[in-house]
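--- STAGE predict ---
source: upstream dedup step, 1 unique chain passed
mode: sequence only
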Amino acid sequence: MKLIDGKEIAKQLKEEIKIEVAEILDSGVDGPHLAAILVGNDPASETYVASKEKACKNAGILSSVYRYPSNISEKELLEAIDFINSDPEINGLLVQMPLPKHISEDKVIEHINPEKDVDGFHPLNLGKMVMNKATFIPATPYGIVQLLERSKIETQGKHVVVLGRSNIVGTPISILLSRKSKNANATVTLCHSRTQNLKEICLQADILIAAIGQPEFVKEDMVKEGAVVIDVGIHRIESASSPKGYVIKGDVAFDEVSKKASWISPVPGGVGPMTIASLLRNTLMAYKAQQKH
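--- STAGE serialize ---
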């Protein structure tokens, strides 16, 4: 069993971005600028935004965080997005999810200028991705593709089983790996909560991608010998025996599944670090596209 080292691969990707940003700044022009909108004070969102700020700083990318109280109206939030959309000095914009219940996440995503949509969630960008046109690829799916590619794991002709059909991970990764292109050309089965004979389908997987949102859902008896396992889940589980009072688990029961897998991504340290690295890549891509205008 080999570990897919997301920390190391993310480090490589960030270093490539840092070099490119340094060249831009050395030429005497302003570099990329990423803005994040944070509504309320959800601890997980706060941590994630802080990680993005730190990663931007290390890569030489300017970052701004616009904070709003959880009782902000939908209208006010959309006006804030309009303001950032119209600012020529901001290249990328993300709105940290989840949002308070009185605000439509779909409406917010559709309001972001597609040219600044570095999360890749806008319907226009998702449509371009489906049609294999140049666009922003959602950060986690792009990170998974990079993990496979840079670990030199063959996808061509392989059977990939994806657990979970969200628009953020499951559906985009199933499209990316099935398309006719380098580091893809796989046969993909997309499974979800209504899938029958789930265990039998998982046992056919050469590559199993777990993004189902349930801690340690994938057990040893669901994985065939020698399969590649990518664990997208991240869950904070209370634990009296841990000094922090909790442990971090993925969607895969790592200790038992790792005995059968040829490659496996750990949690933490697998897909997670790739998500932020991919976001930086999208920000640089947005900046370069906007400079051509």
